[in-house]
Amino acid sequence: MPVILTYGDSNTHGTPPMTNRIEHLRHPAGTRWPTVMQEKLGDDWTLIEEGLPGRTTIFADPLMGAHMDGTLGLRIALDSHKPIDVLTIMLGTNDTKAMFGATPEAITGGIAALLGIAMSLEMQEKHGGFKVLIICPPPVKVQGAIKDVFYGGDKKGAELPALYADLSAHWGAAFMDAGQHIEVSEVDGVHFEADAHVTLGKAVAKAVADL
């Protein structure tokens, strides 16, 4: 029975579009894209959802905590759930927050760090080998209740697909541009509506099946 670990942030966790900053909601199973993906792949697949709202590729968040650094969580997740057969990584949205001052190249460097962990000889041997799919998130829109946090993030996000694609090819990882399938919600410019989750889940299932 193949095991797939979906590693990401609030859009992997299933956070709906926010109308204020104190909401802590979640789309239900059957709507969240990882669960839609699993349904499409078939019952023989085991899904491990590992989405943490606020997670970045490599940045410790001064407001939300050092544990938002994705390199910390990835090591824990991979050691906790071994062996897996497929790892998806969809991160970079939170890296575009103005407070990090990260360039698109620096954000891509964060993905490179995650690939370095996942595709290391040590980690691959622990799992008996697993495949990696890098998913570039759709760019944010600077609007809604959290627009000040993501000031300038739209311009950074627009440059990420080409950079992620080139990096993935260099590492021998699979790549998918989520922005070719969905857009972020007009409500907060960051999170996905329910129908977008369903669309993305179907698209990721196809990309995984093609590995």
What is the CATH architecture term? 3-Layer(aba) Sandwich
From the N-terminal CA to the C-terminal CA, the straight-line distance is 16 Å
Query: Could you say what the CATH topology is called?
Result: Rossmann fold
Largest sheet: 5 strands, parallel
Shape: globular
> How many beta strands in the DSSP annotation?
5
Radius of gyration: 16 Å
Question: What is the C-level CATH assignment?
Answer: Alpha Beta
Portion in strands: 5-15%
By DSSP (H or I, 4+ residues per run), the number of helices equals 7
Q: Sketch the topology as an H/E string, one letter per element.
A: EHHEHEHHEHEH
Which properties best describe this structure?
single chain; alpha/beta; Rossmann fold; 5-stranded parallel beta sheet; 7 helices; 5 strands; globular
Task: Write structural notes for this entry.
The chain has 211 residues and is α/β, with parallel strands linked by helices. The protein has one domain: SGNH hydrolase (Rossmann fold, 3-Layer(aba) Sandwich), CATH 3.40.50.1110. It has helices at residues 10-13, 33-41, 70-80, 104-118, 121-127, 153-171, 194-209, and strands at 3-8, 46-51, 86-90, 131-136, 174-177. Strands 2-1-3-4-5 form a five-stranded parallel β-sheet, with helices on both faces. Helix 2 (33-41) packs across helix 7, helix 3 runs parallel beside helix 4 (104-118) and helix 4 packs parallel to helix 6. The longest helix has 19 residues, at 153-171. The radius of gyration is 16 Å and the shape is globular. The mean pLDDT is 97.
